[in-house]
Write a structure and sequence with these properties.
224 residues; alpha+beta; Alpha-Beta Plaits; five-stranded antiparallel sheet; globular
């Protein structure tokens, strides 16, 4: 499955959009205007193509080969993930990186300018990867938060908290102890995030240690 965005002027001729209420996550629904059609690739592979009308006027298109996927729900989630504030934050980060690279450039000539351009492209790609990772973690938090719309603020607070790395070489594990605070609902959301991240079985770069995420509350620390 993949998706892309394009101008609202690019509409499908003869395709009628329907409106329906979609549960994006438990307790929160969104009204989605969408249309779906068959898309056949040059090699004959049949695909599904859905176009979702976003609130900001753009169209979000999703193409998938899986007939069982709920494309309306996926489209609603993606339209919420890529909000204006997220786009502006990403743009601001990219501009700051570009200015930092530009300030370091000296009079080294074409070779140095080419190297700086390569660094800028790499950092720009990293900004996109980080933004997508944040969106995925926010989506995981929404599944358990008492107020799902607070997921962006909740994630920011988690990322600002202290984290301890505790290696266990004998078990090929690196524990990531995430210090948290908040009420019971927020603690449950963090524990859920930790379990989902652990399930990816991601190794720490350059080692064979598997990352295992665990939540540790401030109250437990004070008792130790």
């Amino acid at each position: 499955m993949f998706s892309y965005r394009f101008s609202a002027d690019h509409l499908w001729p003869g395709v009628r959009f329907t409106e329906q209420e979609v549960e994006v996550w438990p307790g929160h629904s969104e009204t989605v205007r969408s249309a779906e059609r068959e898309l056949t690739m040059p090699d004959g592979l049949p695909l599904r193509e859905m176009q979702c009308a976003c609130k900001n006027g753009l169209r979000l298109t999703i193409i998938a080969s899986d007939r069982e996927l709920d494309l309306c729900r996926i489209g609603a989630k993606m339209s919420l993930e890529f909000t204006a504030s997220r786009f502006l934050n990403r743009l601001q980060t990219s501009l700051e990186l570009a200015r930092s690279i530009g300030g370091r450039q000296g009079a080294g000539g074409a070779a140095e300018s080419k190297a700086a351009a390569g660094v800028e492209i790499f950092l720009g790609a990293m900004v996109l990867v980080v933004s997508r990772a944040e969106a995925i973690m926010e989506q995981i938090l929404r599944e358990k938060l008492p107020r799902p719309m607070d997921s962006q603020v909740a994630l920011r607070e988690i990322l600002c908290e202290r984290v301890d790395l505790v290696p266990a070489p004998g078990a090929n594990v690196l524990k990531v102890l995430v210090h948290t605070k908040g009420d019971v609902g927020e603690q449950a959301a963090v524990a859920h995030l930790c379990s989902q991240l652990t399930a990816t079985e991601t190794p720490f770069p350059g080692t064979n240690l598997r990352l295992v995420y665990e939540r540790i509350s401030h109250e437990c620390i004070h008792k130790m």
